[in-house]
Specification:
single chain, 219 residues, DUF2987 domain-containing protein
Length: 219
C-alpha cells in the first residue's frame, strides 16, 4: 500500500511534525473518488525501533490558543481531523516524549463489523477497494492482487481467534501467529490471523474478539 512517511524537523529533536504535511497525506483518502465504503483511514505514529513502545505516548494538536489530544490506539493510530484553521496556522503535532526515530504516516484498513461476522465476498470487495486506493497513489502496485486479509488483535491472552463458518454448518479455526500489523511496522509481536481467499465458497469469517485492525494482503 502506498505510504507517505513524514519526518519531524531535526531542530526539534524529533518530537513534532507539521500539521500541513500530515494533512496533505491524509486528505488524499478523503478526495479519492473510487469505492471506499468498506475502508477507514487513520494517521499512525509508529516507532521504527522494535524496542521502543508507544505505551503512554500522546499525540497533541497544538495551536496558538488551544491544544487537542489525539488518542492513539495500541497500533499508534488515531482518526485525523482535517481542519482548515489548523492547516492555515500550520499547527504542530506534538509527541509527549521523544521516541527517537519514528514514522508518521497514513494507514488504510478494512472497517470492522460490530457483530464480528464477515462475509467472504465483502472481505474480497474490501481488499479490492484498498488495492484500488493503493494503486491510485503507487503505480508500481498495478501487478499486485488481493490474496487475503490479516486480522490483528490486542496483545492480551485469549483475546484472539478467528474461525471460518461454512454453509454446511462446519467450523474451522484459523491459526494465530505473531506478526506486524502493517507492512513496515517494527513491532512483530501482535497476535494475527491470516485469512486467504480461495475458491468461490460462500463462507463467513467470525472473530471471537474485536480486532484492532483488518489489513488487506497484496501479493
Amino acid at each position: 500500500m502506498s505510504l507517505v512517511a513524514l519526518s519531524a524537523a531535526p531542530a526539534c529533536a524529533g518530537d513534532w511534525v507539521s500539521y500541513r504535511d500530515a494533512y496533505r497525506a491524509m486528505v488524499v483518502f478523503e478526495k479519492y473518488g473510487g469505492p471506499k465504503n468498506f475502508l477507514q483511514s487513520h494517521l499512525q505514529v509508529a516507532p521504527q525501533d522494535r524496542s521502543a513502545s508507544i505505551d503512554g505516548l500522546q499525540l497533541t494538536l497544538a495551536g496558538k490558543t488551544n491544544q487537542v489530544n489525539l488518542p492513539l490506539d495500541p497500533l499508534g493510530r488515531t482518526p485525523f481531523p482535517l481542519l482548515k484553521g489548523a492547516y492555515d496556522e500550520n499547527v504542530a503535532l506534538l509527541l509527549s516524549r521523544k521516541i527517537g526515530s519514528f514514522a508518521v504516516r497514513p494507514r488504510v484498513s478494512i472497517a470492522p463489523q460490530s457483530d464480528g461476522v464477515y462475509e467472504d465476498g465483502e472481505l474480497r470487495a474490501a481488499c479490492e477497494q484498498a488495492l484500488g486506493f493503493a494503486r491510485y497513489g503507487d503505480g508500481s502496485l498495478r501487478t499486485r492482487q488481493c490474496g487475503g486479509v490479516r486480522f490483528v488483535f490486542a496483545k492480551r491472552a485469549a483475546e484472539a481467534g478467528v474461525r471460518v463458518h461454512r454453509p454446511d454448518g462446519s467450523d474451522a479455526s484459523l491459526p494465530i501467529a505473531p506478526a506486524v500489523a502493517f507492512p513496515g511496522d517494527a513491532d512483530d509481536s501482535f497476535p494475527t490471523v491470516l485469512y486467504r481467499f480461495a475458491g468461490n465458497e460462500r463462507v463467513q469469517v467470525v472473530t471471537a474478539y474485536p480486532p484492532l485492525a483488518i489489513v488487506p494482503l497484496f501479493e
